[in-house]
Hints:
Blueprint: H1 2-16, E1 23-27, E2 30-34, E3 38-39, H2 40-44, E4 59-62, H3 66-83, H4 88-102, E5 108-109, H5 116-121, E6 128-129, E7 132-137, E8 144-149, E9 155-159, H6 166-170, E10 182-186, E11 192-196, E12 212-215, H7 225-237
Parallel strand pairs: 1-7, 8-12
Antiparallel strand pairs: 1-2, 3-6, 4-5, 4-7, 8-9, 10-11, 10-12
Helix pairs in contact: 3-4, 3-7
Domain Capsule biosynthesis GfcC-like N-terminal: 24-137
Signal peptide: 1-21
Pfam families: Caps_syn_GfcC_C (PF06251), Caps_syn_GfcC_N (PF20616)
Amino acid sequence: MRLLKKLTLLAAVLLTLPVSAQVVVHSAGQSITFEQPVRLDAVLAPLVRSADIYWPAAALYDTNVPEAEQLRSETLTLLQELQQSAKPEVQQVLLQLASRIADWRLARRLPFVIDYDLARINLAANPLLPAGDYILQLPRRPDTVVLIGAIRGGIISHAHTPATAVNDYLQRAKLQSADTNLVQLLQADGRLVQVPLSGASTIYQEAQPGAALFVPFRSSLFSRDYQRLNQLLVELMQYRVAV
């Protein structure tokens, strides 16, 4: 009876203990811990040491995203299945995609602008970060655009060129099985832009430095597998932490 009372008392004490409210931020190889929820400007203050930051690509990611790992697993499974019946050229690309995607660091990009000066003067641009584990990216201006999908190599980096249309990046890299009627452009600032490249709806669209461009595989009337793969890859690349 005494033992039961002690266990009950211990359980009550444990329930009243405060839950950890730590905010842990990883950036440029270092980790900073705050013991309670913290404003964005306080996170940025010790890390903003350079005027070379390319603010459009600055981003804060939440690492607690089990759905991203589930999405990766589903994508890798489908890539493996499609390799069994693909033509040699496509089979090689599917294999390369699987290899690279397996190494991606995945997290959820938080939907607000990262700007230190703005955060210091505008409360709306200075959100309170709740307890959690975060990745903060404060990159220099990137000099490449990443191509993903139905292109030679599966995932490649192409030198960024100012005043260059999205379509120009595809000409040498796309596969014959690529569907370039509509490509998806994930700009460095996190915006996902649909870019039609054929017919009357064709538009001129430039890519920001550090953008990722998804080139879909052509799907078949007899199989929806590649259509599903395209959907998965577009979703997954939005969880990709740029490095």
